[in-house]
Design a protein that fits this description.
It is a single chain. The chain has one domain. Helix content is 69%, strand content 0%. The protein is mainly α. It is globular and about 40 Å long. It contains eight helices and no strands.
């Protein structure tokens, strides 16, 4: 039994590690190409689930561009984000992380204004965090 428990722990760790895709150059290129096709929160969540390990460098800049364009230019779709936030709180952090200084200031200003004046009642906390992210950049 003393040997069985460490073996089970090792097996569980190996299984969990295999589920997270490592980001090599080929996968980063795939991720980067896919960013252009993201046009809904569902697509973004699917990207997040598959390519989170690639969220660095030029891939992260592309995600920041896409996230902030979606927020600034398609604010009315924000309600579609709510189920993902409830089911996966780390996804919300992922979005907030991408409201950053790599995008134009006027877009951040637009996001801040919409979060301040047009926030859906069920997303007040998220809008407050969004405003904080947009203003500190």
């Amino acid at each position: 039994m003393k040997i069985l428990i460490p073996l089970l722990i090792l097996l569980l760790h190996a299984t969990a590690s295999a589920a997270v895709q490592k980001c090599d150059d080929g996968i980063a290129i795939q991720a980067s190409a896919l960013i252009a096709t993201i046009n809904t929160w569902t697509h973004l969540h699917q990207f997040y689930e598959k390519y989170l390990s690639c969220d660095d460098g030029y891939v992260a800049e592309g995600v920041s561009e896409k996230v902030t364009v979606m927020l600034a230019e398609d604010w009315s779709s924000l309600n579609e984000l709510e189920p993902f936030q409830r089911a996966d709180p780390m996804f919300e952090k992922f979005i907030l992380h991408h409201v950053d200084a790599t995008v134009p200031t006027d877009r951040l200003t637009s996001i801040w204004k919409q979060a301040d004046t047009q926030c859906p009642p069920t997303l007040i906390k998220f809008c407050q965090q969004l405003k904080a992210s947009a203003i500190t950049q």
